[in-house]
Amino acid sequence: MPRPRVLPYIILGLLNKNGMMSGKDMISEFKTDISEFWTVSHSQLYPELQRMVDEDQIKVAETAEVKDRKVINYVIETKGRASLQKWLAEPITLKNDDLTSLKLYCISDQHAAILQQILKQELALHEQKVVHLKQRESSLFADDTAIEAGYGHYLILSRAVEREEAYVEWLQSKIK
Q1: Dmax of the chain from CA atoms?
Q2: How far is CA 111 from CA 15, 59, 62, 157, in A?
Q3: Which pLDDT does position 26 carry in this prediction?
């Protein structure tokens, strides 16, 4: 089964957050901010923008530059706003957990109910990961002999536990 398209939601999130943007503006934001957790190329962005115009998710903004075709600016449509909200509200699972950073990036309002919903779902998922990783650690490395026999694996697993615990702590600090 093909992976669902994610780029449209990022585009919708950018337009929802920033208002009118050109493809060049979006590429710039991808390079400066979003590249920490997601990348896109020109060859992906521009065809997607056209698909989204065709789907009535976004539209070309009527500005003086558009008449000259120098810069094409886009704005989000009602249908696009609804699609974005539906995507943001999709439950976070192990299969789509890698999209959480993108979802959070699309939320500007710190008081948005969806923000707390995402953080709480993410917290529950990562608390489960901590439990699982600690169980694996204790079953595989119950004593010094086991640790010595698989030291590299032990290091990786103990780092995973620490990473997940730190993330859980961060999430707890952000939930109101």
Answers
A1: 74
A2: 19, 28, 32, 36
A3: 93
Averaged pLDDT, 44-65: 89
Interval 32-56 mean pLDDT? 90
- Cite the DSSP H helix spans in the chain: 7-18, 23-32, 42-54, 64-68, 78-89, 100-105, 113-140, 144-149, 151-174
Residue 160 near residue 135 (C-beta atoms within 8 A) = no
Query: Taking CA 94 as the corner, what is the angle to CA 90 and CA 98, rounded to the nearest 5 degrees?
Result: 75
Instruction: Give CA–CA dist 9/16, Å, rounded.
Output: 10
Region 87-108: what's the mean pLDDT?
Answer: 93
Q: CA-CA distance, 4 to 73, in Å (whole number)?
A: 25
Q: What is the mean pLDDT of the chain?
A: 92
Give yes or no for residue 3 having a pLDDT over 70. Answer: no
Q: Would strands 73-76 and 21-22 be described as parallel, antiparallel, or unpaired?
A: antiparallel
One-letter identity of residue 18:
N
Which residues partner with 22 through β-bridges?
Answer: 73
Return the higher-pLDDT residue of 41 and 130: 130
Using the structure block, give the residue that is written with the tokens 């669902």. 4
